[in-house]
Amino acid sequence: MQPLLELRGLTKDFATHRAIDTIALAIARGEFFSLLGPSGCGKTTTLRCIAGFETPNAGDILLDGRSLVPLPPYRRNVNTVFQNYAVFPHLTVQQNVAFGLERRGVNNGAITRKVRDALALVELTGKETRYPNQISGGEKQRVALARALVLEPELLLLDEPLSALDPKLRKQMRIELKTLQARVGITFLFVTHDQEEALSLSDSLAVMNSGRIEQVGTPRELYRQPASRFVAEFLGEINWIDQVALRPESLNISKNHPGGGIKALPATVQTTTFLGNRTQLRTTLANGRECVIEVQDAAQNIGPGEQVHVWWRTSDEIHIPNP
Amino acid sequence: MRRLRAWFLLPGATIMAVLFFAPLLIVVLYSFLSRGAYGGVELPWTASSYTRVFDSLYLAILWRSIWVSALSTAICALLGFPLALYIARAGSNRTLLLNLVMLPFWTSFLIRIYAWMFLLRDTGLINSFLLAVHVIRQPLPLLFNTGAVILGLVYGYLPFMVLPLYATVEKLDPSLLDAAADLGASPAITVWKVIVPLSKPGILAGSLLVFIPCLGAYLTADLMGGGKSVMIGNVVQNQFTTSRDWPFGAAISLLLMAVALLVTRVIGRKGEQLL
Ligand SMILES: Nc1ncnc2c1ncn2[C@@H]1O[C@H](COP(=O)(O)OP(=O)(O)OP(=O)(O)O)[C@@H](O)[C@H]1O
Ligand SMILES: [Mg+2]
Questions:
Q1: Domain coverage including residue B90
Q2: Nearest CA distance, A160 vs chain B (angstrom)
Q3: By CB count within 10 A, which of A16, A138, A192, B71 is most buried?
Q4: Predicted ipTM of the assembly
Q5: pTM of the entire structure?
Q6: Which of A221, A227, A184 is nearest to A205 (CA)?
């Protein structure tokens, strides 16, 4: 099946600095796709090329098999939710949402109806006549979302839409965003530097590192079988033990050796941190390396300074080609 | 702290009192006195200057001055807006371009107006050239008419429009312009629907800075209008020179001030809704 969006060898230079480097990506219709990477790796630049705010130096961007590159931003059937929302301060909530429809020459009756539906979708009913300085950050974010969704684009680009919200609201909006995407059926290309966000939201994700794509796959694949040390470490804490990598939750701990046939190493507990649903133990292995372990049952009264055995199942080992 | 603040206020307050309010008071007093035979003012007190102010001749001149100033302001805004936008987007050339906008201030306004006259008069550069290349047979009447006055005013006050406009446009969040394009607005629509409304404060400030001085302008009207296109400023000037009617001059200048104040208030309040 033809992907909805395809990036082919996309490259963008700013003066002498290469912001994105021959990026190749294919996003299927209806997918929730995340672009994950550290600050400055080129996520925003990639989105800006797709939206049309930057002209790539090389490569092509295909939407439904047709190149977007020659089109100005206002002719692309792609909409963006900006990192800082970019809600028009001189327009009311309602007028902000109507802006795009008016540009398309939609008749007034239809505009009123669509705006009402879009505002209901993001739960902003009742705030229609407020100006952006009269609503909260989370509400502005919803206006930005409604303003883009009301145009029913083939692809919605979201540039760290949750990063300006406080942690609690961020978690709530994360769930809402996922439900919303499933309901409207629009393909989302979601940019974030938060691995938890990317893992929990996406159907597929791509991990970026200094302008390049490191790996593409489902959250599970990337977490369980990272293709590079960078991906392994970016997606969560990881321990390097004898050429293999192990996630903290794959490790177990016991005072006595777990028995024959099980891989185990002696270690000294440094700190234990109670995290509610689990306990995190920082230990030092015999070779002096640090090893982080997360266990469910905090009941085993193991404290700092204690000599323990760290053990794991071979099936949980992560083998990275060239670590 | 309060006391300290009061001290900081003192120099400015003194200057305002001595150089602004005192002369204003003198003008008010003069306007209620009688005309001296050789200029100056004499007793008795009278309000007759004010009855003459509402003579239809002067009201007509005042009205003309208002629309000439309004038209000049509008032209300044239309010319100044794209210029301010361009400068704001010019990147590293901004400072150079801003300096170029202010460059005319380095020479006297009078000299610059004379320069325009040399360009526009019948034997001036433009007419001589057009005659020489046989585009025209008679010199074009470029000088000594209302058009020339408006040209002179626009030329003289354009920087006062450009600078406040630049200051607002430069602060516009660029992502708003991206957002407009993203939602399907062409560059022209973005200017009209986003940039202009958000530049309202700059447009209002610039309009006041151009309109008020235009309303009182007399030099431009005198030289470029050649006495044929009189503005209310010329009437005031005449009362203090050739006509030697100081009380009447004082009364008209107070009327002018009242109009200017009124316009300031109207622009300040209605301008908000108008744009
Ligand atoms: N207009 C520009 N001019 C010059 N360099 C730029 C420009 N925009 C981005 N860059 C550079 O390109 C690189 C990628 O920037 P980009 O904004 O795409 O990063 P990002 O992944 O979105 O980061 P963040 O998570 O911090 O938003 C950075 O090194 C940045 O400094
Ligand atoms: Mg970014």
A1: 59-274
A2: 14
A3: A192
A4: 0.84
A5: 0.81
A6: A221
